[in-house]
């Protein structure tokens, strides 16, 4: 048996508190990290260790729940029991946590043995998702399910308004942050180790954003040139808008729209830090705003609200507390946005429909339905599926459509 020499006992309380935030308060995991990490002065390695243990437990919650012999993860004792099950799964001695004694070593072992061949549980997949994945992806599902249970890599996107990827890499190195350039992804770097990225001067000065590889493909797929009129119609806090502005080299006009004001406020702050000055935000309060922009844009991005099932590595809590109630009504919203907002493109203009989902129902089936109803007014130029299993990234879908009439 290996020794548990990596997890100091004074971390147990923080791990349990993070699990408690997510399982009992239903907080997003990121919010909990932010809350705990901004209160404590932790080294990058310690923070990395806390992220890796809590992320792992939440990505495979049903596995650790069964190892712990828990019928309910909603109880006060559950976080400690889940952490103990995690120790058992490492084949490490299982400590008392929060004064709670562990189960018998033989009990853990027999549960580990009985789950050995249960791929669904070992991949941390709840029944509803297993059914949905099988129905929608068929034979492709087991490999996607396994890929979605992996820890996410730390990808960042260089802000080309500030410098090149090579310059960013050098600046990061000067702050003792190691990274690698990814030749086939021109704006991306992968960060090595647990370095405190967000405390770096580069980050404060807007040299990069944390953004998954797959997500970085979306603005590139829309490919606006400088001087164009571009609309990011579901801009949220601006992940893609900032990338679009950099691709446009701050020249031309970029309108970032959303139905939520607080997101647009965050977007404005991020844009200021990134040195973006060709962007204006617009809150969508009624369909009039969309109608006023009819036939006007060279490029329109529709990064629509979706199930988020492509980004479960990053947001594992969504497996246990899905962000959507009814997939059919979500698809209806997506189709409505696609049909109404695509008219903001002028004839000859291009529209990208994108989701962070791996479900055909939200992706290629939506585009096929749209094209059928468009009756020749739009044509499909290209489609791209970014599969977690094939690309070792989050999962995304994008379709590029041309306005023909
Ligand atoms: C997938 S998120 C966008 C993420 C964002 N593009 C980014 O890169 O950070 C979808 C966004 O659509 C917005 N939304 C939902 N319904 C909408 C609607 N009818 N019109 C415009 N935006 C909408 C949501 O508020 C959310 O911010």
What's the total helix number?
Answer: 19
User: What Rg, in angstroms, do the CA atoms define?
Assistant: 23 Å
Helix content: 40-55%
- Can you identify the CATH superfamily of the largest domain? Vaccinia Virus protein VP39
Intertermini distance: 69 Å
Q: Indicate the structural class.
A: alpha/beta
The SSE order reads HHHHHHHHHEHEEHEHEHEHEHEHHEHEHE
The rough form would be described as globular
What does the largest sheet look like?
7 strands, mixed
CATH class of the largest domain, anyone? Alpha Beta
Average pLDDT figure: 96
- Tally of structural domains: 3
User: What would the CATH topology of the largest domain be?
Assistant: Rossmann fold
Bound molecules: S-adenosylmethionine
Report the uncertain regions: none
The total count of strands amounts to: 11
In order across it, which strands form the biggest sheet? 7-6-5-8-9-11-10
Do you know the CATH architecture of the largest domain? Answer: 3-Layer(aba) Sandwich
Taken as a percent bin, the fraction of beta residues is 15-25%
Binding site for S-adenosyl-L-methionine: 258, 303
Pfam families: Methyltr_RsmB-F, RsmF-B_ferredox
InterPro entries: MeTrfase_RsmB-F_NOP2_cat, MeTrfase_RsmB-F_NOP2_dom, RCMT, RsmB-like_ferredoxin, SAM-dependent_MTases_sf
Keywords: Methyltransferase, RNA-binding, S-adenosyl-L-methionine, Transferase
């Amino acid at each position: 048996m290996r020794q548990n020499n990596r997890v100091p006992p004074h971390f147990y309380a923080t791990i349990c508190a993070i699990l408690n935030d997510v399982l009992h308060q239903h907080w997003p995991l990121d919010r909990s990290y932010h809350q705990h990490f901004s209160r404590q002065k932790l080294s990058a390695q310690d923070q990395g260790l806390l992220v890796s243990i809590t992320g792992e437990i939440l990505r495979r919650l049903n596995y650790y729940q069964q190892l712990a012999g828990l019928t309910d993860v909603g109880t006060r004792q559950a976080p400690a029991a889940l952490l103990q099950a995690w120790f058992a799964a490492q084949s490490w001695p299982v400590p008392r946590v929060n004064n709670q004694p562990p189960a018998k070593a033989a009990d853990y072992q027999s549960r580990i043995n009985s789950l050995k061949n249960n791929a669904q549980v070992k991949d941390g997949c709840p029944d509803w998702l297993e059914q949905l994945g099988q129905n929608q992806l068929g034979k492709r599902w087991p490999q996607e399910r396994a890929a979605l249970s992996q820890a996410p890599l730390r990808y960042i996107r260089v802000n080309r308004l500030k410098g090149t990827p090579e310059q960013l890499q050098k600046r990061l190195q000067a702050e003792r942050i190691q990274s690698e350039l990814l030749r086939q992804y021109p704006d991306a770097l992968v960060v090595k180790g647990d370095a405190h990225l967000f405390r770096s001067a580069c980050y404060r000065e807007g040299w990069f954003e944390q953004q998954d590889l797959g997500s970085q493909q979306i603005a590139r797929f829309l490919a606006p040139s400088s001087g164009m009129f571009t609309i990011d119609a579901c801009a949220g806090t601006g992940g893609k808008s900032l990338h679009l502005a950099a691709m446009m080299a701050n020249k031309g006009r970029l309108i970032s729209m959303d139905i939520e004001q607080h997101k647009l406020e965050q977007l404005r702050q991020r844009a200021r830090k990134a040195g973006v000055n060709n962007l204006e935000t617009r809150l969508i309060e009624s369909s009039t705003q969309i109608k006023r922009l009819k036939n006007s844009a060279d490029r329109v991005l529709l990064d629509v609200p979706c199930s988020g099932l492509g980004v479960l590595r990053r947001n594992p809590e969504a497996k246990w507390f899905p962000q959507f109630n009814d997939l059919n009504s979500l698809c209806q919203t997506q189709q409505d946005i696609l049909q109404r907002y695509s008219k903001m493109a002028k004839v000859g203009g291009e529209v990208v429909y994108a989701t962070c989902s791996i479900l055909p129902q939200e992706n290629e089936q939506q585009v096929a339905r749209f094209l059928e109803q468009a009756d020749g007014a739009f044509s499909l130029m290209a489609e791209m599926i970014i599969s977690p299993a094939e690309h070792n990234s989050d999962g995304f879908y994008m379709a590029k459509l041309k306005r023909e009439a």
